[in-house]
Predict the structure.
Amino acid sequence: MAAHSDAGNDTGTTAGLARRGARAEATDRHAAWRRLAGVGRSAIDDTADTRGSVIQLATRSRYQDPSMQRTVVTLLWRTIALSCVAIGLVGIAVPGLPTVPLMLVAAWAAGHGWPRLEKWLLDHAHFGPPIRRWREGGIVPRKVKWFASVAMLTSCVILWQLEAALWFKVTVPAVLLGVTLWLWRAPES
C-alpha cells in the first residue's frame, strides 16, 4: 500500500522532477519575453508560443500610434476625393453620370485631407462656381434643376424599355423621384 501511495506522489521521482523543471523553464521563458517586451505578466498570456503574444503586442501598439492613424485617415480622404474627381471627369463625357455632385463630394473630402485639391476645385473655372454656390447655402440654379429633372426622367423611360427585373424598374424611378423632389426644394439663386 505504501508503495502505491508513493507511486501516486511522484515529487521525488525522476519524472516528477522533469515535469517541474519543464514548468520552471517555461516560466523563465515567459519572464524573458516579458522583460524583452517591457510589459507585466498580465499583458502576455501563458500560452506555449509566447512569441506570438509579443508580436501581437508590438503590432497593436504600432497601429495605435496617432501619427499612423492620421496618415491612414488622410489617405482615406484623399482616395475619396480623387475617386470622385476621376468619376466626375468621366461623367463629362458619359450622359447620365453626374459631374457636379461628384465634384461636390470631392471638394468636401479634399477639405478634410487635401487642401490643395480643394483650392484647385474651388478656383476651377467650370467646377468652382457650383461648388461655391452649394457651400454658400445649398443653392442650385433653376436651369440645373430642369436639366437634372429631364435627365432623370429620360433615364427612367430608357430603364422601362430595357429587360430588367421589375424590382429594379420600380426602385430606380422611386429613388430618382426622391432626388427630384429634394432638388426642387433646394434654394435657387
Observations:
- The chain has a mean pLDDT of 77.
